[in-house]
Structures are given as C-alpha cells and as structure tokens.
C-alpha cells in the first residue's frame, strides 16, 4: 500500500535526504531534523520519541576501546510501565548521534534561556530532548523545574512528532516514486519499514520483536508474512520511468562549466574514473564522497549539459548487475538505484535543454 504500508528503499532514502536538505537550506530547525531522523532510523513510536531526554543520548567504548553510540529509548505500551521507568537501548550511527547531540545542546540552551538561569548538570541531563517551550515559560524556579521532572509536561506532545514529519515532507517536496504525489508519512510507516526490512533480510520473529521493542513475538509475524517485493530488476527503461516521480536529482543543470557556481575553480570539477568532466561542485569544504556517483543525488552538484552522463548511467547499470551476480543479493545491488534514477533525470533534463537551445 503506497499510502499506509512500509516505504520502499527509494522513499526512505528520499525522506532522509530531504530532511537533511531542508536543514541545510534553513527550512527546518535542528530539533525538527533530529525528530525526523530519530524516527526514521529507529522506527520508534511518537510517544517514545517525544519522551526522550538529554541523558538518553549516549556514547561509550567497548572492551576493545572502540566507540559505540546508543539512544536509550523509553519503552511504551508495556504492561504496568510508568513514565520513563523502563528503557531499551538502541544502537545508532555516529552521524545520528552527532545530530541528536547537537539537539541536546540546543535544548539545554533553549531551556536555560527561557528560564533565565543556569541549571545544575544533573538538571540539564533531565531536560527533554524536545522541550515544550510554551510550558517552560510558566516555570519560575529550579525547584518548580525539578517538580516537573516526574511528569511529561515539559515534553512536546506525541502528536507533534507526526506533524513534524509531515511538515518536512511539504517543505522539502518529498514525493513517492509510486504515486508521484507528496509522500504520505507518519511514524507508523517508519515502524512498518523497520520490521519489513528486517524480515526481508531473513531475520525471524524473535529478532524483529527485539528490534521493534515488542513485549513478545505475537505481532512480529505480520512482517514476515507480508514482505513486499519493492526491489525488482531496474533496467534502463525503468530508471527513466521513475525519474520524474522519485526526484532523486536535486542539483541544478548548467549549460557549461563557466555557468556553474565555482565554475572558475578547477578544484570544484567533478570527473569520472576515466578523467572525463561531468559537472561542478558548488560547495566549499571537504567531501568524502566517492565521486562522481554520489554527486548526482547531492543538492550542490551542477551537471554540465555536455557531460558524458549517458556513459555514467550505463556504467552504473552494469555495476548494479555485476554486484547482483557476485553477491546473489538484489538488496545490495539496489543501493545504487537512487543514483541510477537521478542520472536518468539528468539525461532527460539535458535532452529537454538541448531542444530549447536548438
């Protein structure tokens, strides 16, 4: 179901990239970005996201001295569970931890600014990760603030999580490649997606129940029985059919290198492995991407009208097929799909632009 069911891999990537893009354009706040990626990456319920606190964003080192990052999520819908009594650690990436940590610092600054006084470190740790600033305006003292620690009154309502997800879809114009319309989103769809992706990878009911923090396995079986086959053969024609809807290309086509932002800077030139120029990067600073493939889904990329995009496109299709043959796993090969669709979009835009110039 493209409206209520699990998201396709392309839809999930489109949402995550769209949220980051909206933040880079200052269309959303760091709090809204943290809500979006925290929900999409963990599959947790809105109430669980809304009840997070600064103290729940953790990092540490394992026995080998390697860093690990954890979000200590309050459990929800468990029998006899009270407010923030039971927790379930959820391993997160360094990137998500960095975003949540930035929001933790932001929340502390916002709360202390609203209160008009600095809090002790213990009190800072109990600040909601997503505080309700309107409620804070009525707090007059540290004592009153501590009294509210035992309640959920300082936390944003759970409904605001879903509102934020939908707001980001509108702000970043995130669309489904299945419908061509704005992505119909809520936290439940991310939860379905998390369970379905685990089932698709062959995990059983026990693992899925643990992943989704179910009290037992009675509901986990639904993910195994209803695995959608979203990832099929992506050939040359399909890539072009999906391109107008998926909106994987978010950069700006330019007629030539000299028309690009930073076009006079040789270090901004993006080349293929064969040394052919395909476009210009409009962003200053270091980028660790393995150019040029990731560039086609980046908002800073400016492909040239005369760039060898067809060659890159065909090479990527061949690479997808090669990976599938070597691994026997279409899921691994499908990692390239969004770049393939973005390339198809660029090729079609080039054809249209050439018609306009002729």
TrEMBL record:
GO terms for biological process: DNA integration; DNA recombination. The keyword Phosphoprotein does not apply. Keywords: DNA recombination. Gene3D superfamilies: Intergrase catalytic core. GO terms for molecular function: DNA binding. Transmembrane segments: none annotated. The keyword Nucleus does not apply. This is Recombinase. It comes from Escherichia coli.
